[in-house]
């Protein structure tokens, strides 16, 4: 049990003895930490924002605001804590669970019942933490993969080509395909330009038109054409249209004011 991360608890009850009972009960669990105690319902939100508890042990009948109202307010926070109601009144149990209470302890409770509450809280808390960590790890792996994308797999009838991203000079749309413009050939890839925009190295390629992306390092000229249109000339000799929508971003990337 000692290898578990600390769980932070806030105790809310207008009776000093009730707060003491919960505090002493939590002391049996070395991975629990009481970060605050409050005796009025209208002080809970501020205490939660200050002490950032994982769990609030919350009485229902209190001065200021009752516990059910406090619970509703807590649910509006970006990261609300879990709620365990601790009360002498069982008439509010259904409403409490409808407000997403994790458990409902009736006073006076014994050690066995309190241990069940702790087990329920820990099971949910640690499962949530593991799921959050797994999602974060998967996202990190995916982000890292996208940042390091260096090869495109292009499939065609009877053929699979591995295209080195470093060899792509620019890209343009062609119906349901994207044309990959290399030095010596143009390769059709069945994918959207928007999809590639999300996956290609952001420091290497820039969107210049709804139909085109170019390698930034290959730009040799920026042209203002007679008809009010714009174009980028690449070192390969290719001239790619630049729309008004993307002009400013391109000029900024080129260091042109």
TrEMBL record:
Record flagged with keyword DNA-binding: yes
Biological source species: Aliikangiella maris
UniProt domain Response regulatory: residue ranges: 8-122
PTM annotation (4-aspartylphosphate): residues: 59
Gene3D superfamilies: 3.40.50.2300, LytTr DNA-binding domain
Domain of life: Bacteria
Pfam families: LytTR (PF04397), Response_reg (PF00072)
Family annotation (PROSITE patterns): HTH_LYTTR, RESPONSE_REGULATORY
Keyword match Phosphoprotein: yes
Ranges for domain HTH LytTR-type: 152-256
Entry's Gene Ontology molecular function annotations: DNA binding
Signal peptide bounds: none
Protein name as catalogued: LytTR family DNA-binding domain-containing protein
SMART domains: LytTR, REC
């Amino acid at each position: 049990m000692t290898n578990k991360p600390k769980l932070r608890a806030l105790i809310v009850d207008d009776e000093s003895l009730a707060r003491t009972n919960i505090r002493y009960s939590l002391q049996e669990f070395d991975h629990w930490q009481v970060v605050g105690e409050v005796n009025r319902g209208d002080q809970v939100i501020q205490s939660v924002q200050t002490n950032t508890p994982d769990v609030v042990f919350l009485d229902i009948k209190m001065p200021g605001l009752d516990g059910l109202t406090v619970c509703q307010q807590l649910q509006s926070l970006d990261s609300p804590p879990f709620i365990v109601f601790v009360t002498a009144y069982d008439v509010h149990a259904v409403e409490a669970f409808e407000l997403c209470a994790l458990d409902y302890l009736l006073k006076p409770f014994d050690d066995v019942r309190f241990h069940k509450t702790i087990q329920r809280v820990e099971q949910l808390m640690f499962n949530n933490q593991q799921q959050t960590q797994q999602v974060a790890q998967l996202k990190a792996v995916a982000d890292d993969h996208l940042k390091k994308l260096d090869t495109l797999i292009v499939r065609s009838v009877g053929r699979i080509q591995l295209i080195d991203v470093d060899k792509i000079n620019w890209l343009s749309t062609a119906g349901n395909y994207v044309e990959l413009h290399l030095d010596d050939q143009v390769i059709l890839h069945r994918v959207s330009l928007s999809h590639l925009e999300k996956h290609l190295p952001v420091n290497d390629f820039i969107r210049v038109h709804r139909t085109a992306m170019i390698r930034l390092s290959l730009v040799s000229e920026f042209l203002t054409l007679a008809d009010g249109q714009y174009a980028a000339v690449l070192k390969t000799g290719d001239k790619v249209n630049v729309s008004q929508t993307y002009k400013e971003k391109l000029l900024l990337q080129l260091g042109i004011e």
